[in-house]
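Late entry, evening session. Most of the bench is empty. Finally got around to the prediction I had been postponing all week. Sequence below, unchanged from the version circulated by S.P.
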Amino acid sequence: MAFSPNPLSLSVPDPAFESWLRDSGYLELLDHRTSAAAAAVSASASSSSSAATPSAASDDVVSSITGGFFASLLSRLVTVSSLLTINPFSKLSADDFSGDTPPWTTGFFGTCDSYSFPSSAQQARMRVHENIKRFARNYATLFIVFFACALYQMPLALVGLLASLALWELFKYCSDRWKFDRHPSARKLLIGFGQCATAVLLAFLNVQMALFSALAVSYSVMLLHAGFRKLTPSKKPSRGR
């Protein structure tokens, strides 16, 4: 049956609809039911294979078990590889960094029951987008930790970073002392010189390598954690009367 267009119908924007889903808990329910449906399908398949007649040939049973194993393995590999095609920052906003940092033990890491393999690429995409919004501050903290570890492993990169910061502090001091604001041409020339010197320092002392390694490690950890972390009800801050 086709419905006639209704001039009084209203369209809800996607951000508002996702906010309603998040506040009402339907995202967690959808994630739980998707995992439960996948587990039920897997259990029914295993029970049907175990209920085969005893007169069946052993090579057929072995081939069916092997084929099911490789099919399941291929499906999981496709699901994991789909994480690489997801843009994890498509739904991230500046407001996600303004709230409180979720607790590391109970909120971010959770328990062993807080993780499960995504049953499909759609579930992995939903988990990644939602978990990155919830744990944005945790992932930013992890990037800072990984970057600090990379600088510790590469002392020259740490020297280059400190030298570039010292260079711009020197420029700020000279600008305040000799009033470069009154001479825009000289100020622009010195800014260009400082940018070139900073680029040479960062490139020569491998600061970009430390930054790239920290980005690669933190991005991989973020995708794996967000894709395998179950959606749990987020606690709403209590409002005072």
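Two things to note before I forget:
The CA atoms of residues 48 and 224 lie 33 Å apart.
The chain has two domains: 14-145+221-228, 149-220.
Will write this up properly tomorrow.
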